[in-house]
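Comment thread on ticket #2218

A.B. wrote:
> Attaching the input chain for the structure job we discussed in standup.
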Amino acid sequence: MSRLRHAFPITGDRLSGRLVTPESKRWWTLAAVSSGLFMIMLDATVVNVALPAIRDSLHMSLAGLEWVVAGYALTFAVFMLTGGKLADLFGRRLVFMAGLTVFASASLACGLAPGGAVLIGGRVVQGTGAALMNPATLSIITATFPPRQRGTAIGIWRGLPPRRLRIPRTDTSGAAVQPAGEGGRRR
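C.D. wrote:
> Ran it. Output below, let me know if you need it in another format.
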């Protein structure tokens, strides 16, 4: 027994005491809400890459593929203000966790979708979950961090997702599309 204590000098209680201090709780919170924002932004972009595979495996039309993308974006945009108001009324953490649960459940439904209608419905529900999560992330950060650390925390939160996930737009065949005027000369 003494050899084990020498080999592993930090026990479970001591380890959790070091990992979860009042100061580190803030950074764990930042990691959690940043992960939520990362999932939202990743899901908004990565489906574009999968459109050709979705079309082939679910035998979807071009209009159906457009609804796969637009269903998420529309519900995300439409319910974002509602998500912020619900966070104000019922609490940031509760609304963030509810949004995360809705988002994860809808992601599972999308992954297991047997057809286009279920996939489109799942994407609409995903957008609703994302709209609940997104406004709560920033308000959780501003409530968690003191003013002198808030700028750093918001910089980390904002620096993680979309710019790092820059995935080229594709058409339904999978070919990369770049409209004129977005970084290149027109020939």
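A.B. wrote:
> Thanks. Noting for the ticket: Residues 25-162 form a domain with the Growth Hormone; Chain: A; fold (CATH 1.20.1250.20).
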